[in-house]
Specification:
Blueprint lengths: L9 E7 L6 H12 L6 E8 L5 H6 L8 E6 L5 H11 L4 E5 L24 H8 L7 H8 L7 H8 L6 E5 L6 E4 L3 H17 L12 E5 H7 L10 H11 L4 E5 L1 E3 L8 H20 L5
Parallel strand pairs: 1-2, 1-4, 2-3, 5-8, 6-9
Antiparallel strand pairs: 4-7, 5-7
């Protein structure tokens, strides 16, 4: 259901499976924060075939939150599937997905803005912004901008954006991160083991925490990366980052304040499935399935 009337600057995606109890507080906090900002926004809740009243609870907020959208999938597809579905349906210049348990509060998005590349919808707009210093023609702009042996307009565009990021992800493992409610020893060990396996099997070094459910993207990155994704369930975060890195996107890992939900459980069976999907990602990468 669409309740958005203007172009949003930020889209916030909340994947939800059997979240009727935790979703209300999360929705209220997100809307309370965003309603005080000076930009347009939308919130998209995706019920992933929930067996409880998640969809009904979300729908009850449509009249309270003017820019709320609900996607009610009748069948369970997996978190990766619904995140991809909502990210591609979203229309914001920037798109963030966050967990329904609110383990990372929405105000952490403020840390992302300094790192994000300012989204321009077309090369024409990027060109226009570069003409501000009384540059009279495309020829003059090109000549002045190509001084550092830039060979083409495409390369000029890339170098112009080289110090900014299209993807900014929350991390619980980098300096400055705060774990307000620490994880259990068992869960921490499982997480550390998984991250090590990701680095070894997927060949994905350089990212400390692939699994924090607080990740932001420019619209351009979403539209180029997410259609290539194949993983619907456990290891979709890893796949997104592997594809992004393959495509040359710069990824910024930033510290967040994270509150562990003691009722959230990670079972060994789920961890094994995640590891099998990481192996599948590696095979997809080697076989060229992410090339097109």
């Amino acid at each position: 259901m669409d309740n958005q009337t203007t172009q949003p600057y930020l889209s916030v995606i909340i994947p939800a499976y059997n979240e009727e109890k935790r979703l209300p507080a999360t929705l209220e906090e997100i809307d309370k924060y965003l309603s005080k900002q000076d930009y347009e926004y939308e919130i998209i809740v995706v019920s992933d075939g929930s067996k409880d009243k998640t969809a009904e609870v979300a729908m009850s907020y449509v009249q309270k939150i003017k820019n709320l959208k609900i996607i009610d999938n009748k069948e369970n597809h997996g978190k990766g599937y619904v995140v991809r579905q909502a990210m591609l349906e979203a229309t914001g210049d920037y798109r963030l997905f966050t967990d329904a348990d609110n383990s990372t509060s929405i105000d952490q998005v403020e840390k992302m803005w300094p790192y994000f590349r300012k989204e321009t919808r077309s090369l024409s707009e990027a060109k226009d912004s570069y003409f501000r210093k009384e540059t009279r023609s495309l020829s003059e702009a090109k000549d002045s901008y190509f001084r550092k042996e830039t060979r083409s307009l495409s390369e000029a565009k890339d170098s112009y954006f080289e110090s900014e990021y299209d993807i900014v992800i929350g991390s619980r493992d980098v300096e400055g991160a705060v774990l307000a409610v620490p994880q259990s020893f068992q869960r921490r060990m499982l997480g550390d083991t998984f991250n090590l396996v990701v680095k070894i099997v997927a060949g994905f070094w350089g990212i400390s925490d692939t699994q924090c459910g607080f990740k932001g993207f420019t619209a351009r990155a979403v539209e180029n990366i997410f259609p290539k994704c194949k993983i619907d369930r456990w290891a979709f975060d890893v796949e997104i980052l592997v594809i992004a890195k393959k495509m040359g996107y710069k990824i910024k890992e930033m510290p967040v304040t994270w509150v562990n939900d003691p009722y959230s459980k990670v079972k060994l069976k789920g961890m094994i499935r995640m590891l099998s999907e990481v192996l599948q990602i590696r095979l997809n990468f080697l076989s060229g399935r992410y090339n097109n």
